[in-house]
Amino acid sequence: FNLQLWNNYFHLAVAFITQDSLQLENFSHAKYNKIQSKYGDMRCLIGFAIRDMWYKLGQNKICFIPGMVGPILEMTLIPEVELRKATIPIFFDMMLCEYQRTGEFKKFENEIILKLDHEVEGGRGDEQYMQLFESILTECAQQHPGICSLVGSFVSLVKGLLERLLDYRAVMGDESKDNRMSCTVNLL
């Protein structure tokens, strides 16, 4: 097992699907349709490959926690529903791997909270992501009773943080200092 090779693969694949020139939602409707009909959404194709390769790592997955949390988060925040549905379960698998090794998933939790703050501040994330994140992780956790309550607490924590981060981002352009201050206090 060559850790550096796999690490390079994952980082390269995430860099590919997150590049600006593939963010189809930023294009005009005509350009979007033309690219979709000619090439399809390459982000999904690569995202599915990342997901498949992640699950093939077996016992070596633990080597990528917490290092791959940020890149996987960046990928799941792409506003493409099928990509999100296919890749958000990787987070549960990361939690499960760390839990099976240490009895908790604090490294994963700390890393995702840190990276989520950075990503939302950068303009990524939306209400739909928050709902998918909650429903997918809750559904995954129900199949593992031993970790279910921990995952539920984690999902509530991240959902609350994401709500506050999205509120904060929304009011940053607001003229009302009271609204900005209120969101800042809530976030803190």
Automatic annotation (TrEMBL):
InterPro entries to which the protein is assigned, alphabetical: DOCK, TPR_DOCK
GO-annotated molecular function: guanyl-nucleotide exchange factor activity; small GTPase binding
A single GO cellular-component term on record: plasma membrane
Sequence ranges assigned to domain Dedicator of cytokinesis TPR repeats region in this UniProt record: 1-136
GO biological-process terms attached to the record: cell migration; myoblast fusion; small GTPase-mediated signal transduction
PANTHER family cross-referenced by the UniProt entry: DEDICATOR OF CYTOKINESIS, DEDICATOR OF CYTOKINESIS PROTEIN 2
Protein name as it appears in the record: DOCK2 protein
Protein source organism: Alaudala cheleensis
Gene that produces this protein: Dock2_0
